[in-house]
Amino acid sequence: MEREHAPVLIIGAGLAGLSAAMFLGLHGVRALVVEKHAGTARHPKARGQFPHTMQALRIAGVEDAFLAAQPADPGFTIKIAATTSGPVFHTILAGETPDFSAFSRNAWANVSQEKAEVILLERARELGADVRFSTKAESLEQDADGVTVVIRDLITGTAREVRADHVVAADGHRSPVREWLGIGRHGRGVLGEGVNAVFEADLGADFDGRNLLFYLRNPELPGGGGAFTSTDDRNRFTFGVGEVDDIDEQRWTELIRIATGRPDLEPKLLACNSKTTTSALVADRFGAGRVQLIGDAVRTMPPHGAMGGNSAIMDGFSLAWKLAMVVKGQAGQGLLDSHDAERRPYSEVLVEQQYANMVRRNSPHLADGTEAEPIDPAELILGYRYPDGAIVREADEDGALFENPAEPTGRPGSHVPHDKSTVDIFGRGFVLLADESTWDTKATEAAKALGVELPVHRVEDPARYGVSTRGAVLVRPDGFVAWRGEGDLEAALRTVLGR
Ligand SMILES: Cc1cc2nc3c(=O)[nH]c(=O)nc-3n(C[C@H](O)[C@H](O)[C@H](O)COP(=O)(O)OP(=O)(O)OC[C@H]3O[C@@H](n4cnc5c(N)ncnc54)[C@H](O)[C@@H]3O)c2cc1C
């Protein structure tokens, strides 16, 4: 069997895998990506990029492409109704975009997965990724020196062996890699299964070019409900119901007529019966040695809150700088292990938040008092913390997973307090924030000792970061505070890099 070597092999080219490839490229590592499908997603699926995701996409140079790809009016309407023509039981959003302008310069974008993946793919390739479609990973074995993965070209049928230094499993909710590694999942389990149709229809001006999501409650629909969404294309919609078996085209037409409240509608069916599983599950571990898992492979949640797609992209962003430093020999296994320590606790919260949203919005019959209390969206999206991981913990660290983004503390594990003028200095590598020029020499020496780059950015108000004028703040490539203080910078950097 033919063999080839890859520093990083990414299995799966969805939002998570393509993001990981793009951000790795940004950090100078060319990943090999294998995807069993012949191309990117053909279903709109996840839509909506929150400001933290947009900031990451800005760093990768694709913010403008995302803003240009969204519909002219990015406002979003979410309603609970009997049909899309009414009656409406409850309006969750009425053509608004969530307003985070008090905390973040970044707007939100409303791009669907089918367009998002194309942008990510193009940028990942531009940055050097080798993305191969119609190529399936069939087995994985790891030893102390590397990982051996058998991949098969599904067009020619030829199998070859990839010897990878590291593997990223971005292979979706069924994740064969997770199975091969014997990593279990925990949580509320599978909540429902369904089938989806994509169709074209002229539903009138109210539907034309608008971002709409209707959760339908209607006894005439299978299971008593369904979900109706617009897509990025005019007059193209998706409709899903909780039916396990395939539905024939005539029945789809009937169901769409019920859902739209228009008995004479003649929908043109473009695709029928794509399967969906709604579940709330988190992997027991997000990594094992040289293999790290991201996206739906580690976390699935009901779609109520749009964090499935956002967190898949942000997993790629969070993991890429760590993996790149390990590949370049600048960091140790400890930095990779922090992927689990940092992303898993946050994921547990996201899954429970979206489960609670689902119960409140759409499945009140499931309410049993165990649902999580809602966390303010700004805090959930812009105020999450990593109290454990690649940071130097402070003695009074309380383990809080969230803080108010309007009152950032600057403590290790938190997003670095920033404003519009400083936000763009973060994202590529480590940065040291300091007022006193003595830090220039200390930064140069620490950087030299550890073989990394560490530019110093002068700040006039160190108190804002919770240090005195004599102190400094070490900020990670992902914009989180790693350490702050007046002490030994080199020791701090060494701890963060897992060396
Ligand atoms: C109909 C639908 C609607 C959704 N709506 C929303 C929404 O509104 N908001 C939201 O946030 N989320 C939504 N989601 C969820 C969202 O799509 C996922 O969270 C997101 O796609 C996760 O990205 P991923 O890259 O981890 O996984 P995927 O996009 O599933 O990508 C995994 C990839 O791995 C590939 N793969 C698997 N095994 C192998 C193998 N052995 N070899 C090679 N390749 C392999 C698969 O083919 C797949 O392309 C929706 C999902 C569906 C299905």
Automatic annotation (TrEMBL):
Parts of the chain that traverse the membrane: none
Keyword hit for Flavoprotein: yes
GO molecular function: FAD binding; oxidoreductase activity, acting on paired donors, with incorporation or reduction of molecular oxygen, NAD(P)H as one donor, and incorporation of one atom of oxygen
A matching Pfam family: FAD_binding_3
Needed co-factor(s): FAD
Gene3D superfamilies, alphabetized: 3.40.30.120, D-Amino Acid Oxidase, subunit A, domain 2, FAD/NAD(P)-binding domain
Alphabetized InterPro entries for the sequence: FAD-bd (IPR002938), FAD/NAD-bd_sf (IPR036188), RIFMO-like (IPR050641)
Taxonomic superkingdom: Bacteria
Keywords: FAD, Flavoprotein
Protein name as catalogued: 2-polyprenyl-6-methoxyphenol hydroxylase
